[in-house]
């Protein structure tokens, strides 16, 4: 029994030693990527939306490469999937609402 305790404590200390740098990298990126937009970001967001709408009207989406179109499709699917996950969390069921 003492051998298991010794091995488990060594395993836990090794795990913590290896996890600390990875957690620090995660926190560095999380602090940047997961922050909401600041008021200074709003003009850039507005310009992006205007550019997207004008590109849809002018047909510039026809000039995309296959790679760009594929990446745009993946981003659109990701947004839809996260919306669906949020709906499932909100209604607390996979299908339908409780009446």
Summarize the structure.
The protein has 99 residues and is an all-alpha fold.
Structure description:
- The protein has 99 residues and is an all-alpha fold.
- It is 76% helix and 0% strand.
- It contains three helices and no strands.
- The chain has helices at 2-33, 42-58, 66-91.
- It is elongated.
- The termini are far apart.
- The mean pLDDT is 88.
Topology record:
Blueprint: H1 2-33, H2 42-58, H3 66-91
What brief labels describe this structure?
mainly alpha; 3 helices; elongated
Helix content: over 70%
User: pLDDT below 50 for ≥5 consecutive residues: which ranges?
Assistant: none
**Strand and helix order:** HHH
How much strand? under 5%
How many runs of DSSP E, i.e. beta strands? 0
Radius of gyration: 23 Å
Q: Strand count, sense and closure of the main sheet? A: none
Number of helices: 3
């Amino acid at each position: 029994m003492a051998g298991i305790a010794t091995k488990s404590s060594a395993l836990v200390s090794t795990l913590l030693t290896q996890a600390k740098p990875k957690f620090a990298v995660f926190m560095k990126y999380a602090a940047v990527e997961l922050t909401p937009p600041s008021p200074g970001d709003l003009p850039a967001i507005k310009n992006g939306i205007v550019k997207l709408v004008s590109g849809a009207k002018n047909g510039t989406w026809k000039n995309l490469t296959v790679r760009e179109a594929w990446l745009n499709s993946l981003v659109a699917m990701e947004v839809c999937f996260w919306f669906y996950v949020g709906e499932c969390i909100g209604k607390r069921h996979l299908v339908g609402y409780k009446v």
